[in-house]
Amino acid sequence: MVQMLRLQFVRVSLLASKSSTTLPLNLTPISTQLPRTTRLRSQMASYSTSSHSSKLLFRQLFEKESSTYTYLLADVSHPIKPAVLIDPVDRTVDRDLSLIHELGLKLIYAMNTHVHADHVTGTGLIKSKVPDVKSVISKASGATADLYVEPGDKVSFGDLFLEVRATPGHTLGCVTYVTGDASDQPQPRMAFTGDALLIRGCGRTDFQGGSSEQLYKSVHSQIFTLPKDTFIYPAHDYKGFTVSTVEEEMKYNPRLTKNEETFKNIMANLNLSYPKMIDVAVPANLVCGIQSKAI
Ligand SMILES: [Fe+2]
């Protein structure tokens, strides 16, 4: 079934590490001129149910220690039901994989929006348990992964795809994954913003190459320009919120509704404590969550 996936649309730079010098097993090149760039898409089928589209299966999963959201998306109209996980956490990998098994999905990508400082990614653990899964992160993150994405890339699973938007500022390599802009893609669109934009907040900008100026520009140019009804699904929430919209955040976000100077002032005076997990999480997350060269 894996061979049914074929490359199209997505340009994904392949990792230059020894674990990734060949094309991933679930990808088949459509051109012989694809040394470092590929395009992928899978075949479509004809049945499914979902609240967002006839093809999308969507689950928002929560990890309570770090208040992290992990998102599961799958194209259930495709025969193999290809799925992606966005921002998995190491502590909840077994829960996530068991759900994926129960739903009869085929996990193909474990993706991160950025190198997290507050928890260890589940990506490496997932790869050790399901070897076909490919890890995905932005090239700008500097982290190890099977596939690197860059702004404008499309990550396909079945007939659905996520568009990659660069949203640096919380970290240098932050990206936002947005569901596709096409009539056969979920409506309204859904933006997985990582820590760039939180519900009524945003990620801190004082570590990991952060920059409040850059974050302000990222959110305004890459997220607030999306259709107003686009759902915002952040990587964290500490107040119990689960989802917002572009329109809501443009109206009510207490930081991003301000002008740039005021925003920079707010971010410079948060007086946040040193992240308790940063010294463990960042080194681990730079190598997929497991400090092993095999990953
Ligand atoms: Fe973060």
From TrEMBL:
The record's principal subcellular location, in a coarse class, is mitochondrion
List the subcellular locations.
Answer: Mitochondrion
Q: Name one GO cellular component term.
A: mitochondrion
Q: Where is the Metallo-beta-lactamase domain?
A: 67-236
List the EC numbers from the record: 1.13.11.18
> Which GO biological process entries does UniProt record here?
glutathione metabolic process; hydrogen sulfide metabolic process
Q: Which GO terms describe its molecular function?
A: metal ion binding; sulfur dioxygenase activity
Keywords associated with the record: Acetylation, Dioxygenase, Iron, Metal-binding, Mitochondrion, Oxidoreductase, Transit peptide
Q: Which Pfam families match?
A: Lactamase_B
Task: Name the needed cofactors.
Answer: Fe(2+)
Superkingdom assignment: Eukaryota
The UniProt catalytic activity note for this protein reads:
S-sulfanylglutathione + O2 + H2O = sulfite + glutathione + 2 H(+)
Similarity comment: family membership? Belongs to the metallo-beta-lactamase superfamily. Glyoxalase II family.
Q: Which PANTHER family match?
A: PERSULFIDE DIOXYGENASE ETHE1 (PTHR43084), PERSULFIDE DIOXYGENASE ETHE1, MITOCHONDRIAL (PTHR43084:SF1)
Protein name in UniProt: persulfide dioxygenase
